[in-house]
Write a structure and sequence with these properties.
Length: 251
């Protein structure tokens, strides 16, 4: 396998606070990488840098031979990088289906000229997207909630919907920020099943998660972060047994 993502010596400071300190790692095609560590370790800051929400002070990020670290968030998204957020960021005043339809990338109807001169193509793509949305909502177990407002879903269902919205972007790299935090065991298993299947579709995944059992279930490799630094890296079992992890996080 070749590295799809290569992160070299990222540094990010906020008013003197070191959020990332010479952070480096790589990700292969079809790999699921876990990021663990205490609150404030720099995990979400890393996601924000990778997706262009904030700029690193120094270092580089290369995805599929393209440098990401100087590009704005929308350009990075169009290159095939998608993410979820801890606060979900769903549009709760519209339906589940509408949230999913808004998440498809490169819709021709987004171009005003297409709505006038290529209306037929716009309608065709909209119909295809709607069929795809119904299909993925069915596979995710949300078929009965298609026309419900997102605000009417349980928290676990909202987490699942957030993941579905990420999936329909058809991104090659998915960054999932605490996808199973705070939800019931049955919903955890449902979400982990979806994540486990992603490498079969050629996707690469990075997961931030405090649920170490979930990390052990789905991740090929784990990075433990603390105070912006990579402390150790290895298989889930190797990292779990590392004395530095036990001292800083697990005890």
């Amino acid at each position: 396998m070749s590295s799809w993502l290569k992160i070299d010596n990222l540094n990010k400071h906020f008013d003197g606070v070191k959020a990332l300190v010479d952070f480096s790692c790589s990700l292969d095609k079809g790999e699921i990488l876990g990021l663990i560590g205490p609150n404030g370790a720099g995990k979400t800051t890393l996601f924000n840098v990778l997706t262009g929400f904030i700029a690193a002070d120094s270092g580089s990020v290369v995805f599929c031979d393209v440098y990401l670290h100087k590009k704005p968030a929308h350009r990075i998204a169009n290159l095939g990088v998608a993410r979820t957020f801890q606060d979900l960021r769903l549009i709760k005043q519209i339906s589940v289906l509408e949230n999913v339809l808004l998440s498809f990338r490169k819709q021709p109807g987004e171009n005003l000229a297409n709505t006038f001169f290529r209306a037929g193509r716009c309608r065709k793509v909209e119909a295809e997207n709607k069929d795809a949305a119904y299909s993925i909502l069915g596979k995710a177990g949300l078929a009965e909630k298609t026309n419900s407002l997102a605000s009417d879903l349980s928290y676990g269902q909202q987490k699942l919907l957030s993941l579905v919205c990420c999936l329909v972007s058809d991104a090659d790299l998915l960054l999932l920020d605490e996808p199973v935090a705070g939800i019931a065991p049955a919903m955890i298993e449902q979400i982990l099943s979806i994540i486990t299947d992603l490498p079969k579709q050629g996707k690469s995944v990075i997961i931030i998660e405090h649920n170490l059992e979930a990390v052990r279930q789905v991740c090929n490799r784990v990075v433990f972060m603390d105070a912006g630094e990579k402390i150790c890296e290895g298989t889930p079992q190797e990292v779990h047994n590392d004395p530095r992890v036990i001292e800083a996080y697990l005890d």
